[in-house]
Automatic annotation (TrEMBL):
PANTHER family: 2-DEHYDROPANTOATE 2-REDUCTASE-RELATED, PROBABLE 2-DEHYDROPANTOATE 2-REDUCTASE
Pfam families: ApbA_C
Coiled coil feature spans: none
GO cellular component, one term: cytoplasm
Residues of the Ketopantoate reductase C-terminal domain: 63-181
Annotated segments matching region Disordered: 197-216
Name of the protein in question: Ketopantoate reductase C-terminal domain-containing protein
């Protein structure tokens, strides 16, 4: 489901059609044929209304990395800056200074991981949101609502893959660090993090554990 914005409590603006790509989760304890059959059956059920576009794609890794070109870049940067994707394109410099270089970092990580994305995917992802709705990605909406953000899945995982493969990703690392700061701020507001008193001699260091929303 894409292009959904909660304009006010209980009011959802869905400015793009429902498009879903489904692939089987690789489980070595289940025969591949069983996984594929279940995924294809889900696609049939989802398409039954005739109002949506649901397709099956066996190349789950390729599809996930293609989506990360958007989600590892626009999503966190919009959350950090408080600026929607349309304004970034209108002002131009946010795209050229931040979004485009960040997307190419993710593109290079995907390539090193064995997923050759099309050369034009970066520009397509930059332009994919409609200009007239001033769309806010999910992480930006979550921050504005005071909710936790899913930065470990969208930013942390590609960054860890880059580190594993030896692919430079300095900008992605900065974005990841800033997302951790945002998450800590949300945790403090929710009372999950308790700051030490000024006269506490231990002064423990609080940190967001890797892959977790819980401070360590």
């Amino acid at each position: 489901l894409i292009g959904a914005t909660e304009t006010q409590p209980g009011h959802i603006l869905h400015d793009d059609r429902d498009r879903l790509i489904v692939g089987a989760f690789e489980n070595h304890n289940i025969p591949k044929e069983t996984n594929l059959a279940a995924a294809k059956r889900f696609v049939e059920i989802y398409n039954a209304s005739g109002k949506v576009q649901c397709t099956h794609d066996e190349n789950v890794g390729f599809v996930r990395w293609r989506k990360l070109i958007y989600n590892a870049c626009y999503n966190p940067v919009c959350a950090i800056t408080g600026m929607d994707t349309a304004r970034m394109r209108i002002y131009h410099s946010p795209i050229e200074d931040v979004i485009r270089p960040l997307m190419w970092e993710v593109w290079n990580i995907a390539k090193a991981a064995g997923h050759q994305l099309p050369d034009d995917i970066v520009q397509k992802m930059i332009d994919c949101d409609p200009d007239d709705t001033y769309f806010k990605p999910s992480m930006q909406q979550d921050i504005e609502k005071g909710n936790y953000i899913e930065f470990e899945n969208l930013v942390g995982e590609p960054l860890r893959e880059a580190e594993r493969l030896g692919v430079p990703a300095p900008q992605l690392k900065i974005v990841y660090g800033m997302c951790k700061i945002l998450q800590l701020r949300v945790m403090e507001k929710k009372g999950v993090v308790k700051l030490p008193q000024k006269d506490d001699p231990t002064r423990p260091i609080l940190e967001v554990s890797q892959g977790s929303s819980v401070p360590s």
